[in-house]
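Quick one:
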Amino acid sequence: MKSIAYLAAAGGLLLAACAPPAGPPADPARLAPADARLAQLYADSCKACHVVADSGAPLVHDAKAWAPRWKQGEDVLLDHVVQGYKAMPALGQCAACTPDDFKALTRFMAGQEGKS
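Output:
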């Protein structure tokens, strides 16, 4: 009986190790894209909402909040940024951002850097 409990516990630990983090990092306000230009665009536009839990925006690197959004695909996310969606303002309040900037910033915030 104990061996079954141990196996179940070990299995649960293995599954937990494969799962995305349960929530945002301890201090999302300290995160920024590695690229200096993107970091400035992020600081000027995205950061105001995406590090404030009460804003309703998915917090930067919050895998749980971003997972269902990311599953919609980058084209849908880009459209939401450009057109605005729910509380998301059109162009994310970033008039200087290009579509590629929006994609890179979204990847950064969703913790999906390096994916295209």
